[in-house]
Amino acid sequence: MSSDITLFVNPTAGRGRGAHAAQPAASALRAAGFSVRTVIGEDATDALARARAAVAEGTGALVAVGGDGLVNLALQAVAGTRTPLGIVAVGTGNDFARALGLPVRDPAAAGALVAEALKGERIREVDLGRIGDHWFGTVLASGFDSRVNDRGNRMRLPLGRFKYDLAIALELAAFKPVPFRLTLDDGSAREVAATLVAVGNGTSYGGGMRICADAEMDDGLFDVTVVGDCSRTTLLRVFPRVYKGTHLTHPKVTVYRARRVELAAPDITAYADGEPVGALPQVAECVPAAVRVLV
What we know:
Blueprint: E1 4-9, H1 13-31, E2 35-39, H2 44-56, E3 61-66, H3 68-78, E4 85-89, H4 95-99, H5 107-120, E5 123-131, E6 134-136, E7 139-143, H6 144-154, H7 161-174, E8 178-183, E9 189-200, E10 222-228, H8 232-238, E11 253-258, E12 260-264, E13 269-272, E14 275-279, E15 282-294
Helix pairs in contact: 1-5, 2-3, 6-7
């Protein structure tokens, strides 16, 4: 394994934590004897091109310093290759790192862990979801949650998480169940009126909302959580339980497991790792051992 390591940095992650986190992470790697270079793109397209170039040139590891958005971008560069992925999670949600039990918002500890993992070759091969040629690590969201994202992304004010809290309230006021068509491995289609459908490779999204709480990242299967036709009152009562994953026992919630999931619904945008991937219908496939993560 090469001793030349690439730090892949989002300078704006977590209101500037990405840029600040790069230094202690780099220091930990250099103290362990690694040579470190930093990649910062002008935009997402440029950043991905630079990350892919580093992988093609044989970097010993690509270390993503940022939140789930940057980790998702890093996955596009390393998925299907032998290049290991390190994570210094300093974003808002950090759900991919949480699912793997990695340090969150502690760049020095995360950098030290990456260095130790490289020296000891502590690598875990984990599954990824794939939609077309786009990879995701945590959850594909559709329905109420994706409409909240749509609304929040259109809003300029308020800033930060308050924007999405307001978007939740506004969407809840206007919410109606969505007619979904869900097709799993056996090819049979299920027509369901649902509040949301979440396809989980990982357990959580939104910074710890354990929507697919029992998902395993190395079993070759998605956990597909379907929250059925809920009234606003039921949704408000069930929603807080998602942080502990206890919503899965509610009678309005059904969980399926599948390698391939096709989702169709009118006027719904799918979000994967918090990033929009396009309007439904979409087909997601679980690809076993698609990425090698330093743990």
